[in-house]
Amino acid sequence: MTTVTRQAPAGRAAVIAGIGSYVPPDVVTNQDLTRRLDTSDEWIRSRTGIATRHVVSAGTATSDLAVEAGQRALKSAGSADVDAVVLATTTPDHSCPATAPAVAARLGLTGVPAFDVAAVCTGFLYGLASASGLIAAGIADRVLLVAADAFTTIINPDDRTTAVIFADGAGAVVLRAGRPDEPGAIGPLVLGSDGSLGNLIEVPAGGSRQRSSGRSAPLEDHYFQMRGRDTYRHAVERMTAASLEAVERRGWTMADIDRFAAHQANARILTAVSDRLEVPVERQLSNIEHVGNTGGASIPLLLSQAAQDGRLTAGQKVLLTAFGGGLAWGATALHWPVLTPF
Ligand code: UT7
After folding, report:
1. Is 96 a catalytic residue?
2. Neighbours of 41 (CB within 10 A)
3. Is 263 a catalytic residue?
4. Quaternary arrangement and interactors, per the entry (predicted)?
5. For the domain with range 190-335, which CATH number is right: 3.40.718.10, 3.40.47.10, 3.40.50.2300, 3.20.20.210?
6. Which of the 8 DSSP states describes residue 136?
7. pTM for the full model?
8. Which of 121, 234, 266, 287 is catalytic?
9. Distance 231 CA to ligand 1 centre (A)
10. Cβ < 6 Å from ligand 1: which residues?
11. Which CATH superfamily hosts domain 13-178?
12. DSSP-based three-state secondary structure for 145
């Protein structure tokens, strides 16, 4: 097991200065899914908490979602001036090159460093670590961090265990250099991984392992595959432990937490984690019913929507946690800053 806990060096921290999100307009209902899969609205609602989800239309790529969310975060920050772009995604436009440079160019940011972070559903938290590092090291003063996934593009449309859960969306934050004691300052971040369980969540084919073998792979191996039951168990354990550690490292207790924003993996996972952490239902943020599991985009999409509809307000103590393929997990706690979300 590898768990890394770091606090930004005293004096210079990454501070959230803007937030925005985007979901594509097309909506798929549970009823729509029952027309082509052996499933039911009742099964999907009771096992996952999902009723509807947004999906990309033909020809739409992750960068299209990322650009929309990025524009909104820059507008929220009140300035398009950033000196690095980090994109967390599991569904890059191409397997080579990274998608972040294309996003940066389309946002008028040609020339700034831009790179992708691959941490599946924990991508936003790993992206926060990358962006905070750039700021703490003095490499950048303002970073645009986008988490975007066109997850349905890697889902097997005939696999009812994943097709009912995963969906598409994007969320973004602008981070600026500031002080660790300011509202919106990131840190401490708790991050971990366990690659010995990498096969719980994977796309088996299409990478160097399969391509170097010279053997073709069955079509289903080019799609996302998940061992749901085992993943569920690890998700609950890891998000609970990471959350407790993040809160403790921050010097808070769980009773201090005003809002809990966990990766929207499955409503039952969220309930199980919240029960273990004893987070009352009115402090839990959730949007899974209407957006499904949007992979790495999940947390910033949730934060942006909750800030827009007033469930999340300045001054609240917020706990974030995520878990997903890798395996990779993480958590952090922060004071929500004064922001105009888009
Ligand atoms: O975001 C990254 C991390 N991802 C997660 O954390 C997701 C974790 N896992 C899950 O959310 C859940 O495990 C699932 C929602 C994927 C599955 O729920 P479950 O309660 O664990 O169901 P199960 O896999 O144990 O399957 C129970 C039954 C099976 O039938 P039998 O063997 O009992 O006859 C499945 O074949 O439900 C069946 N089933 C379905 N039935 C109707 C599986 N998917 C469906 C479906 N509709 N869509």
Report:
1. no
2. 14
3. yes
4. Homodimer.
5. 3.40.47.10
6. H
7. 0.95
8. 121
9. 10
10. 39, 43, 47-48, 121, 160-161, 164-165, 228-229, 231-232, 235, 265-266, 269, 293, 323-324
11. Thiolase/Chalcone synthase (3.40.47.10)
12. strand
